[in-house]
Amino acid sequence: MYTLPNLTGHNLSPHDIVVVRRVFEATCSKICIQRPGDHADRLARFIVDEFGFGNTDEASLLECALWHETRGILPEAKRDSLVDMRTALARENHDLG
Description:
Blueprint: H1 14-31, H2 38-52, H3 58-70, H4 76-96
Helix pairs in contact: 1-2, 1-3, 2-3
């Protein structure tokens, strides 16, 4: 089984650290994450890992971090409509095939 590398951020330059910190702070402020805390620690790890995987553009990294933190927080009505749309598309594709 393939496992992802254990990225820790040890190879970040001072400039990289500034970028990662700004993204972390902006995400915490936008989502109201308490610092320090387990949630903030997990977010920091996610951001550093994303940066290490090559997502080094600050705007892109922020968008990714915000998506990561909000992906499960859709209102129930929107969540249901997304599921219905996916089901309809899957049925349509099945009927065509």
